[in-house]
Structure formats: C-alpha cells, structure tokens
C-alpha cells in the first residue's frame, strides 16, 4: 500500500500550508480533484521528490520514501506536456526513458515491442512521433513511463486537450495497466467524469487540505 500521512508543504515566502493524507492499494487508482492552484500538483511533486516535505511521511508497503533522492524513488510520472522528441521514432522515444544514449540492449528492444502491444501501438514502432495523433502520442508517453515498471504511477492531468472519445480510451488504458501491473496510481484531474470513470477512490483539495470524498 502507498501511504501518505500528514504530509505537509509550504512554499518559501508563502503563508499557505498544504496538508495531505491518502492511501492507495496495489492495483488501485486514486483521483485528486480540486480547483486550479489548490495544491494538487504540489502533492505529486512531493511524492516524486521534486519538492521536500515540510512534515509527515510517504511509505510504500512499509518502506519509507519520504527522504529518498528523486532517482531512488519507485515512481513514474506522466504530465500533460509529454516531452516527446517529435523527430525521433516511437521506439527511440521509449528507449530514451531507460537509457541516456540510444545504444540499448537487445532485451530493451524486446521490451519496447511488448510495451507497444500493451498500449496498442505495435504498428508504429518505427514511425516518427510527429506523424502520430495527439492520443497516439500520449500512448507513446505512457509506454515510456511503463518501461521502468515502477510501482507508483503519477498522472498530472495527462489527457487534457484530447477529444472526449480519445480521452476515454486513454483513461481505460490507465485502468487496465494499473490493474494488470498492480500499480499504485494517483491521477490529478479537474474533471469529475475522469475520476468517476476509473478511480477507486476520490479525494479533493479543500482549503489547502486533501479530503476523501
Ligand atoms: N515555487 C512556488 N512558490 C510559491 N508558490 C508556488 C510555487 N509553485 C506553486 N505555487 C503556488 O502553490 C499553489 C498550488 O500549486 P499547484 O501547482 O499544486 O496547484 P494545482 O492544484 O496543481 O493547480 P493547477 O490545476 O492549476 O495545475 C498555487 O497557488 C501556486 O501559485
């Protein structure tokens, strides 16, 4: 279980103190709702280690994560701005998620093939990312995140800007991937419909505090 207890954060020179408590079981999705600027992304940044907690703790199956450096955290993140290299192929974009050079091992190439099947892009392995639709590009970004198979998956409004039908396909894919890989998924969204479609539990930021709905 991913467990977040009395986690606190205050930005430098700011008055607001954000407080978070939540738990996510293996294979579960927790949705985080809340107005713009309410502190949703701040929580993801603390879990990922981009911001240091001002108090409280984060643990996964009893293992303390709170003070681990970013690169040691068992976390992958998918943002709305997916940071793909448009001129590179789908395969190369995904491999860049695991190695800094493009000299990958045969095992890694095989893994890319498997992951592309999982996200329904097996026909596009060698296509430049620029030739894909917005929804397909988000599938590439998801595949890149999945290659490392980290047990915690954080999604920060990743499907904003996609049409409703494509968004639903992506949400259902996140659900399938979370269930099949026993991930602990936290999805930040401003859309209640997203949460209702795939979340096992819903939380909302209210007055700088995360509250279970
Ligand atoms: N570096 C910073 N210094 C001071 N305040 C900050 C900093 N970064 C963010 N904030 C403020 O902290 C608050 C929470 O930001 P956060 O990004 O977590 O909100 P959010 O709920 O994710 O918003 P959105 O839905 O618009 O992305 C906002 O009011 C923001 O202006």
Automatic annotation (TrEMBL):
UniProt xrefs under PANTHER family: SPERMIDINE/PUTRESCINE IMPORT ATP-BINDING PROTEIN POTA, THIAMINE IMPORT ATP-BINDING PROTEIN THIQ
Domain ABC transporter: start-end pairs: 2-213
Record Pfam families: ABC_tran
Molecular function terms, GO-annotated: ATP binding; ATP hydrolysis activity
Protein name: ABC transporter domain-containing protein
Matches recorded under InterPro entries: AAA+_ATPase, ABC_SmlMolc_Importer, ABC_transporter-like_ATP-bd, ABC_transporter-like_CS, P-loop_NTPase
Keyword set, alphabetical order: ATP-binding, Cell inner membrane, Cell membrane, Membrane, Nucleotide-binding, Translocase, Transport
Organism: Sulfurovum lithotrophicum
